[in-house]
Design goal:
heterodimer; A: 319 residues; mainly alpha; MetI-like fold; 72% helix; 1% strand; B: 346 residues; 74% helix
Chain lengths: 319, 346
């Protein structure tokens, strides 16, 4: 007589009427987030549609943002400099944040031990909870003093390089300083993700590396970094999403100016979210429509970045 | 006695005294050289010091490294680079905690938490006026936002863990994407749909915007804690003849009660410092009155923001004090969440 291993039975559930009602309510509740996201997109698009149809692609590429209060003089809305400014500031932030996050994650995960490690990971969690307003407050009141010295240093030594060129000697409130503040805001996010990914490195691979005579750095370089590569990319993009959409921290630090500028040390720059916050209070209904349209563009931008990022992170941290 | 000696175990990994002395000497050397350099060159300030110390340490490692093997030398250099970069990453947060504490404590007198700005202008002495109205406003809006969001968030979590219907992937994806919605866009949305259609900025408008930002956090945390409920509990309940709705309501949810409270707290901590959406939807005021659907209302972030915009000495002091209160609130929420979160895992 041969024995057969028991097969796990398929559970067969017949839902009662009460269960059907319950499941309906829960499903409806879960789908509200989808509805909200859809409403945000469609309402912003509907309110901004007039601007999109009036200016077309020139709304994205146009360089002039002027709202006229008088009859006869047409208003003009183009968000080009602000969009470019947003990307510049975020790029600076990521340029600083990504290496620092990788180092920070490696340090917590592989170098720090005992109490220091516990303190640092607690500090990391707390830092991720600091509101962006406090980063902005610190940025303009404390960090700018350091940041403008660094900017001045760069401008004096490397001023021949077009990006570091300046025409005035005013270095505070520049995209460079705003980027540094954003970097310190992005670092907690990217560091947490990087640390999460690094901690999933199979222990036996690292031990194998040591057993073959590898040093700590050898193990990190050959095992940990390649293993965590795509996770770090995902974390960096999550950070990018936050940097692109940040309002108050940039608003407080950056000197908003409506002009294409690629001089990152100069005390002027652009940012879509700050534009909305700045112009909102005193805008005519026509300008308000344009601001909503700008918000829609920002929404699409951050949503796409965030979707790609979360897809990458989900793929790499799935156990 | 025979001449056998029992070999003492050597512990090559343990630090010897010579090592300790050597690292103390090198640290001292780094200090002395850095002082000399800082005194005789233009470097100054905290950042100048940091750069000097780093450069000198690199130099010293190179000098000492001649005795080591190539492998060890490379290792030491990399360790220094990683440590320095990590320090650079952690330094801003320490600076933030420190400066908020030091600058915030100046204006944090008793009247700051007991009076409002009804009869005070921002430029008055710091022993007049306060931010009570802003704290109450923040509390009101956050509480309303929680009341709206918590049920929806828990329902999402229940859907993802208990029902696992055909929208599971979609719901998870949407929640993930929603966490990336910029806060100003949420504010703009509530403004175009609710605020501009009614009587302008109100507490209810503010709480709608905060709710949008809070939902992803609450939903994701709920899902995480509901996942921790052992399947045996569900099976046992079903085996006893309970329907799914009874199982969920009377077994699953009560099991993770403190976890769900954690979800709410984390959601509150996420939105309590949000400034941009409130700028558009809640406005500001100099006193608190309880009417969620009429009139603008102050909140702590807007208070800080407004004081900073005024920019005079006393106003900036008030801004820092507000920031201190805000940060303490966030940390208190955070530690409570941690305490409660640890409870369920036991």
């Amino acid at each position: 007589m041969n024995t057969v291993a028991p097969i796990k039975r398929e559970m067969h559930v017949v839902h009662s009427r009460g269960d059907k009602v319950f499941r309906g309510i829960v499903t409806a509740g879960a789908l509200t987030s989808l509805v909200i996201l859809g409403l945000i997109g469609s309402f912003l698009f509907a309110r901004g549609a007039q601007v999109f149809s009036q200016y077309g692609l020139k709304f994205i590429t146009g360089t002039n943002w002027s709202s006229s209060m008088e009859e006869g003089i047409p208003s003009e809305f183009g968000m080009g400099p602000m969009l470019v400014g947003t990307i510049i500031v975020s790029a600076i932030a990521l340029l600083f944040a990504v290496p620092m996050s990788i180092a920070g994650a490696l340090y917590i995960e592989f170098y720090a031990t005992g109490r220091l490690r516990r303190i640092l990971s607690g500090l990391l969690d707390l830092a991720a909870a600091i509101p962006s307003l406090i980063f902005g407050l610190w940025g303009i009141q404390v960090f700018t003093n350091f940041g403008q010295n660094w900017a001045e240093f760069l401008a004096n030594r490397l001023g021949w390089f077009p990006l570091f060129n300046t025409i005035s000697d005013n270095y505070g409130r520049s995209p460079f300083v705003a980027g540094c503040v954003l970097a310190s805001m992005v670092v907690p996010i990217t560091t947490s993700v990087a640390r999460e990914v690094y901690s999933r490195t199979p222990r036996e691979l690292i031990d194998t590396c040591y057993a073959l005579g590898g040093s700590k750095w050898g193990a990190i370089k050959t095992v940990v970094l390649p293993f965590g590569k795509s996770g770090v990319v995902g974390g960096a993009m999550l950070g990018l999403g936050r940097a692109l959409g940040e309002t108050v921290a940039v608003y407080l630090v950056l000197n908003l100016n409506f002009r294409y500028t690629f001089r990152i040390l100069e005390s002027e720059g652009g940012n879509v979210a700050s534009l909305i916050a700045t112009r909102f209070g005193e805008s005519s209904s026509e300008e308000l429509t344009a601001l909503v349209a700008a918000g829609f563009v920002l929404f699409l931008l951050t949503l796409s970045v965030n979707m790609v990022a979360s897809a990458i992170v989900a793929r790499t941290t799935r156990s | 006695m025979s001449g056998i000696t029992i070999p003492q175990p050597t512990r090559p990994w343990q630090r010897k005294r010579a090592d300790t002395v050597r690292s103390a000497v090198s640290a001292g050397l780094v200090g002395v050289i850095s002082i000399v350099i800082v005194l005789f060159t233009g470097f100054a300030g905290v950042d100048g010091w940091a750069v000097t110390v780093l450069l000198v340490s690199v130099l010293l490692i190179f000098i000492r490294g001649r005795k080591l093997s190539t492998k060890e030398r490379g290792n030491a250099k990399i360790q220094l680079v990683i440590t320095a970069a990590a320090l650079l990453a952690f330094a801003p947060w320490i600076s933030i905690f420190g400066s908020v504490l030091v600058k915030g404590i100046v204006g944090l007198k008793l009247n700051f938490v007991t009076s409002d700005m009804r009869t005070t202008v921002p430029d008055d002495e710091l022993n007049m006026g306060g931010a009570l109205h802003a704290m109450l406003g923040s509390m009101l809006m956050v509480m309303m936002a929680t009341a709206i969001t918590l049920p929806l968030g828990i329902l999402s979590g229940v859907y993802l863990t208990e029902i696992k219907g055909r929208f599971t992937f979609l719901v998870r994806f949407v929640i993930q994407s929603m966490s990336g919605v910029p806060s100003i866009v949420a504010g703009l949305f509530v403004f175009t749909t609710y605020v501009s259609a009614t009587h302008g900025p109100t507490a209810f408008g503010g709480s709608l915007a905060l709710g949008i930002l809070m939902l992803p956090t609450v939903a994701r945390t709920s899902e995480e804690v509901l996942k921790l409920v052992p399947d045996d509990l569900r099976s046992a309940s079903l085996a006893l003849g309970a329907r799914q709705w009874r199982t969920t309501l009377m077994v699953v949810l009560p099991t993770v009660r403190s976890g769900l409270i954690t979800a709410a707290i984390l959601g509150v901590a996420r939105v309590i410092g949000e400034t941009a959406p409130l700028l558009l939807t809640a406005g500001s005021s100099t006193a608190f009155w309880f009417n969620p659907v009429k009139g603008p209302i102050a909140s702590l972030p807007i208070y800080v923001f407004g004081m900073l915009q005024i920019g005079t000495e006393y106003a900036v002091n008030r801004a820092w004090s507000g920031a201190l209160v805000l940060m303490l609130a966030v940390f208190a929420l955070f530690f409570t969440a941690r305490k409660l979160g640890g409870k369920d895992k036991r």
